[in-house]
Amino acid sequence: MRTVQEVLKNIDEDKLIENYFNEHPLMVNKFDDDMTIGQIKSGSKKLMKEYIDRLRSLNTTTNKDQMIYYVYEYLHDTSLEQYIAVSPLAELREKGAQSSSYGIEYTKQEEILGYYVANTDLTQYYLLDVMVEILWDASFFGINQEDLEDAKQELEEAAKGPYKKFTYEEFEEYIDSLGPRPPKLSRKDKIRKENTISKVNKIMSEFDDHLKQQEIEKVLRSIDQ
Q: Are 69 and 86 contacting, i.e. CB atoms less than 8 angstroms apart?
């Protein structure tokens, strides 16, 4: 099982950058007006190469929580979609499909690079997508994370409150501002509708948990071998 940095050192850089810009198209209006599209593309590609080179050369920190990236599928409308998750290994063992996936935007790049990437077939098939997401999230506060400390401080201040409390009247006004409300159902029809929705949600949730649990078991087997 490889770390994020080990994958980054061995991945096809051109394909990675191409997939990155397919997922996150260039914002042309952020560049100078006198630049051509070709100059913008060339400059952006150069910047991405420098970003990737930087991540390849950073000294990683110990993955003390044994965080691991893996991909699982879930039902969306009538088709299966892929979800890229990152979780502590101990939590996967203990909670299985009920384990959480955690954001890395506020995590230092040196730590992210030490996270593991699962060696399951599904994760490896979507490896480029996994790495694109990591590159995006790891640069959320700048390629060098130059705004990370300020963002952490703002988050801490926001967590202290105070929080605005809405009255019932204010909440009703907000709901009305969203547009006309649907016609009210009779109590009998409302109960029937809620019961049907509850049954469908339960079936979908159980199916999604089954798919997720399957992948987690594959992750654990690949580690325990």
A: yes
Inter-CA distances, 180 with 102, 168, 194, 217, Å: 37, 18, 21, 47
So where are the chain's domains?
Answer: 2-66+101-145
Kind of pairing between the strands at 67-76 and 116-117: parallel
- For residues 139 and 44, the answer to whether their CB atoms sit within 8 Å is no
* pLDDT per residue rounded down to tens, the chain (225 residues): 899 999 999 999 999 999 998 888 764 444 555 655 566 567 778 888 999 999 999 999 999 999 999 999 999 888 999 999 999 999 999 999 999 999 988 889 999 999 999 999 999 999 999 999 999 999 888 888 887 788 778 777 777 766 667 777 777 777 778 888 777 778 888 888 889 999 989 999 999 999 999 999 999 999 877
How much is the pTM? 0.81
Contact at 8 Å (CB) between 79 and 19?
no
Of residues 149, 133, 102, 142, the one with CA closest to residue 4: 133
Instruction: Report the 10 Å Cβ neighbour count for 88.
Output: 18
